[in-house]
Amino acid sequence: MATWDEFTTGAPRISEIFRRRHAATGNLCMLGTLRSDGFPRISPVEPRMFEGELWIVGMPDTLKFTDLGRDGRFTLHTATVDTQVSDGDAKVWGVVQNRQDLAQHERFAQALFEESGFDLRGQRFDPFYAADIHGGSSVEVGDGHLDITIWKAGGTERVVRKH
Q1: 65: part of which helix (H) or strand (E)?
Q2: For residues 45 and 78, is the Cβ–Cβ distance under 8 A?
Q3: What is the extent of the structural domain holding 66?
Q4: Distance separating alpha carbons of residues 13 and 78, to the nearest angstrom
Q5: CATH number at residue 22
Q6: Residue 13 in contact with residue 149, Cβ under 8 Å?
Q7: Do 10 and 2 contact (CB within 8 A), yes or no?
Q8: Whole-Å CA distances, 1 to 10, 50, 93, 131, 137
């Protein structure tokens, strides 16, 4: 459906809120997956934007990645601790694809090291999930109203205002 770059072009308002909240929490988001029994699972994750795509990567052999390996559908929500949502919040959803391009793994590890000092250089990532974004939404609180912005891949953003 859409890469991260395509999402930011098609949904500039939502992607800006997502980026802002993602950065404010040290890259922490909450990942929604489907367990083998069909019930939802919520897990913390630190997604990264790299080479124009959104990557959902982390410690291998965790249940969240087992879930995604079985059923690639996900939702990713910015971590919100402010009950007034004064800085907004956002989420995206879609399907992941496990990309096993070892040269890309090396570039990712190098970029991660340069950005954070966390050294995974020389490692193969399995899984290495790229997000195919199908949609997104955001919430912003304004002067006595709530703006909900909604986007679906291939479309444009639309804002629903609640008073």
Answers
A1: helix 63-70
A2: no
A3: 4-162
A4: 14
A5: 2.30.110.10
A6: yes
A7: yes
A8: 12, 17, 11, 9, 16
One DSSP character per residue, 98-122 reads E---HHHHHHHHHHHHHHH----TT
Q: How many domains does the chain have?
A: 1
From first to last of its 163 residues, the chain has per-residue pLDDT tens of: 899 999 999 999 999 999 999 999 989 999 999 999 999 999 999 999 999 999 999 888 899 999 999 999 999 999 887 777 888 999 999 999 999 999 999 999 999 999 999 999 998 899 999 999 999 999 999 888 999 999 999 999 999 999 9
Residue 51, SS3 per DSSP: coil
Residue pair 110/121 in contact (Cβ under 8 Å)? The answer is yes
- Locate 74 and state its tokens: 């996900």
